[in-house]
Amino acid sequence: MSRSDRSTRAMHQALPPALREAVDDFAEHLSRVRNRSTHTVRAYVTDLVSLFDHAVRMGCVDLAELDLSVLRSWLARQRTTGAARTSLARRAASARAFSAWAHRAGLLPADVGAALASPRAHRELPSVLRADQAAALVDGPTRRVTPTDPPPTDLPNTHGAPTKPARTGPAAEAAVPLRDRVLLELLYATGVRVSEACGLDVGDVDHGRRVIRVFGKGGRERSVPYGVPAQRALDDWLRRGRPAMVGAHSGDALLLGARGGRLNPTTARQIVGAYAEAAGLPRTSPHGLRHSAATHLLEGGADLRAVQELLGHSSLASTQIYTHVSVERLRAAYRQAHPRA
Question: Domain 131-336 in CATH: superfamily?
Fold first, then answer.
């Protein structure tokens, strides 16, 4: 447990029983009704415990006493302690979500958070790879490497060297680059989140239509197409790679880790970063490949709504940031090439 988690737990235990019960009930609502991830629920709970700790310090010991002035005072204090605009925006969203739920549940006489404003989070344009750079990254596992330049395999051991698959032998050793190749191909070909890629089961792949079934945020299901290179990588992995790495704990997982279980997103991030570094590319993450896939789709003429569906964005505003990336590229090209720029 991290220091932050321990601090949140201590503040939670110190809250009056009514406020502590409200936090627990809201967390259960997020998990069971809204089907939010464990990470999301933890973030909401952390924000809510911080809010109630501040409210108690202001003399608000009963939930019905929570009002807009308390919410604004809490955000103001967060700002004076150095919280970033993105953090303030998220915490305000947490307060509004709780307030709306508590009002519907009859715990608050009014939805006091509805009028809570928050600073607009500054959204930096995502960094993206050029198409040739993305191709170099995805092709990394197919290039033979020397013993002095080993391919990434899985989580580092205590000495920082790559670990080897639990099942030893030539077949297991050869399976690792096949796994890495299909991971990179799927991330770039489909633009899925790394957690979505690692959550894929063998049965989620429709080879005939070249479509994968993805379960995104909130358990929302969507179908995402992929291309011929990804299909070849999948065929090689399922025919020659996965059988060599499969173990007692593999289940139906499509992508496997070194010990035969489902590939962990943290490991997947390390794999992407290692291949990017080996290819001499800028620091790249799975989310960077997602950014690149979306940008290249739009630059190739894809409809914004179609890209929204592919990425699994609930709001079109989340997808529109990629149009800004394309415009920035156009402006850069204009400044470089036009004599009157």
Answer: Intergrase catalytic core (1.10.443.10)
